[in-house]
Design brief:
heterodimer, A: alpha/beta, UDP-N-acetylmuramoyl-L-alanine:D-glutamate ligase, Protein-Tyrosine Phosphatase, Chain A, 2 domains, 9-stranded mixed sheet, 6-stranded mixed sheet, 17 strands, 37% helix, B: alpha/beta, 10-stranded mixed sheet, 7 helices, 12 strands, 33% strand, globular, binds zinc ion, zinc (chain A), Mur_ligase_cen (chain A)
């Protein structure tokens, strides 16, 4: 590693102090505040910290944090890895991540979809992993066709190896300007944002995972990696049963693309896969927590596509607690609730809580799903008999529940 | 084929314009009709398909700039919606869908794009995005309720003499001139997500009443609780 110039060293040291303060005062993971202090002092800090490392940027609407964790776990097979493990996915978080591990030859950075062009430009990362794009909290996330258009411009004309999910038409369109692309077939359960061709606006015809525009040349590229149910098929047509400890289809998709990224770094599946199997929980997601004889499994879902994946993981034989907030990070507009098909919960005991529980209550009422309204999460838990319970919460609702368990999860 | 007795709801271009919970307006009309024993048939019309002109209530939602321009082009070429409105059908147009009902709206670079001319309004791109809760007093001609919802748009809409404002804003931006939305005949346009009918069941009943005549009251407990909470949260005390 090259030595950082003095001003950059000072900036990153001050950033670390602020991060420590934020942690000891209990105001957060410390990963964002440290980075913000650092960035103010040295705008070029991220560029300097990124230089001479092998970097992967990971972006998508859903699964960024988990996939970042999976790729990090794989690359640790090759050496030390700097990463923003707490999901602080804007430049301030990237500064924190890289500053906290200056010796690491590898970096795996989760990047907010909007910030991808900027972070790509600043860090000159050589590998970019792109999984999916779908409607998200639009009062802050912006429009996804526009986002994909910005990805196209940012990737064009640079020496970048992109690993991307070709089953998502918008991701394909956003990724295809890169000089090298490894296409991975990871599936796309949520299709409501890709019935139309991003190239010409014509209708996309779909058959299974395959798709093609009826009116122009735009069609799904041929993948070299496939997610095939519980296994991944590599470019040599070898089938690897994943056998992850993380649950659900979405995580198998994340693992498939992570294995393709590993191969870009020369790490073969036989060495990468055992590393993926070591990951059990990511920032509290999928963990079981215990309270008074009840075992609660915590699932995070931030948008309609995420809720679809969470329902898939959830066990239909169990009661389920749903918690919804509408603070800044959640998106203050709760309209997205109407894009989620809750009818799948019919027949299960459903408990509704969170700051916007009345929005959810009306949504379930219109869907014809019986539910019980609970003032607080504790009240919802108190209603449960001993045994297993699933919990699905959106972002700040999830963090509030985690905080109740002392971030032990 | 739809039977003659059923209420026919037509949702226009969910593949282009349904970015934020717009389906909710469809689901709420269906629920509130069925609760009153009115059978419902809903048609989702994709943008590659013709718009049927035999519907009773038409809905069109919000979306991004490019899909909005595509939707306007297709509706103009198709003509089905115009025939339906001439026949006396009603229409709820939300956000991007509201703008394209006018004679002109702003494209992705702010360029003027020709609308479909069903409402006497002109929209353009405003200086800043209007994002947040909105509350407004509704035109007495439509019952004088309080309108509640969430707006998220960059549009500024000028109302011509052929339409009336839907409401006067108490909180929020709306059209940009102290009014929010507009109506003319049986067409109602609004910037509100929420979705609009989840927050304003009275407006759902305006549409159902136009299509089927006087309505029996139904249990609005969940609607009322949500409305009260939202209005308490945003209205000045
Ligand atoms: Zn096309």
């Amino acid at each position: 590693m090259t030595q950082l110039p003095l001003r950059a060293q000072l900036a990153s040291a001050l950033g670390r102090t602020a991060a420590t303060l934020s942690r000891v005062t209990g105001r957060g993971d410390g990963s964002v505040i440290g980075g913000r202090v650092g960035l103010i002092l040295e705008p070029d800090l991220l560029r300097k910290l990124a230089a001479d490392r092998k970097l992967v940027l990971v972006s998508a609407t859903n699964g960024k944090t988990t996939t970042t964790r999976l790729i990090t776990s794989e690359l640790q097979e090759l050496g030390e890895v700097a990463t923003n493990a707490f999901g602080a996915n804007m430049p301030a978080g990237h500064v924190s991540a890289l500053a906290s591990n200056k010796q690491a030859p590898f970096g795996v950075l989760e990047v907010d979809e909007k910030y991808l062009p900027e972070v790509l430009e600043t860090t000159q990362a050589g590998v970019v992993c792109l999984m999916n794009l779908s409607r998200d909290q639009m009062d802050r996330a912006g429009e996804i066709w526009l986002l994909a258009q910005k990805w196209r411009r940012a990737l064009a004309g640079k020496d970048i190896h992109v690993v991307a999910n070709c089953d998502d038409p918008l991701v394909t369109w956003g990724a295809m300007t890169a000089s090298t692309v490894t296409w991975v077939s990871c599936g796309q359960p949520w299709k409501e944002d890709s019935w139309c061709c991003p190239e010409c606006g014509g209708p996309l015809d779909r058959k299974g995972d395959d798709w093609a525009c009826r009116e122009c040349h735009f069609r799904r590229p041929e993948p070299t990696w496939f997610l095939d149910d519980d296994a991944v098929i590599d470019p040599r047509r070898q089938r690897w049963v994943l056998d992850l400890r993380l649950p659900g289809r979405a995580n198998r998709a994340n693992a498939a693309i992570a294995l393709a990224v590993a191969e870009v770094f020369g790490l073969p599946v036989e060495r990468a896969l055992p590393r993926l199997r070591e990951v059990t929980s990511v920032a509290g997601r999928y963990t079981m927590v215990e309270r008074d004889g009840r075992s609660l499994r915590l699932l995070l879902a931030k948008n309609p596509a995420g809720w679809l994946e969470a329902f898939e993981v959830s066990d239909p034989s169990l009661p389920i607690v749903l918690s919804v907030n509408a603070q800044g990070p959640d998106g203050r507009d709760t309209s997205w609730l109407w894009d989620v098909d809750f009818r799948i919960l019919s027949g299960r005991p459903v408990y509704v809580t969170g700051e916007r529980r009345l929005d959810l209550a009306l949504r379930l009422d219109v869907a014809g799903v019986p539910f019980q309204l609970c003032e607080t999460f504790d009240a919802a838990v108190a209603q449960q008999r001993p045994g297993r319970v699933d919990v699905i919460a959106n972002y700040t609702a999830f963090q509030q529940i985690r905080a109740e368990f002392g971030r032990a999860v | 084929m739809p039977s003659d007795s059923a209420l026919r709801i037509v949702w226009i271009y969910p593949d282009l314009l349904s970015t934020y919970g717009d389906q909710g307006n469809v689901l709420i009309l269906e629920q509130r009709a069925r609760k009153r024993g009115i059978p419902v048939e809903t048609v989702y019309v994709r943008s590659a398909d013709p718009v049927p002109d035999s519907g009773d209530i038409y809905l069109i939602g919000g979306g991004e700039d490019r899909p909005q321009i595509l939707a306007a082009e297709r509706l103009r070429r198709d003509g089905g919606l115009h025939r339906a409105i001439d026949r006396g059908a009603s229409m709820l147009a939300v956000c991007a869908g509201y703008q394209i009902m006018g004679t002109v709206f702003g494209g992705e670079e702010g360029q003027p794009v020709e609308g479909i001319g069903l409402l006497d309004i002109q929209s353009s791109r405003g200086p800043a995005r209007a994002v947040g809760e909105l509350a407004a007093e509704v035109d007495t001609g439509l019952g004088g309720h309080v309108l509640t919802g969430f707006e998220n748009h960059m549009g500024v809409t000028r109302l011509g003499p052929g339409v009336r404002p839907l409401s006067r804003t108490i909180v929020g931006i709306g059209n940009g001139d102290g009014t929010e939305g507009c109506h003319a005949g049986k067409i109602v346009g609004t910037y509100l997500h929420g979705p609009a009918l989840a927050r304003n069941p009275w407006l759902a009943d305006v549409f159902l009443g136009w299509a089927t005549g006087p309505l029996t009251p139904i249990d609005d407990a969940w609607y009322d609780r949500l409305r009260d909470e939202r209005l308490k949260a945003v209205l000045p005390r």
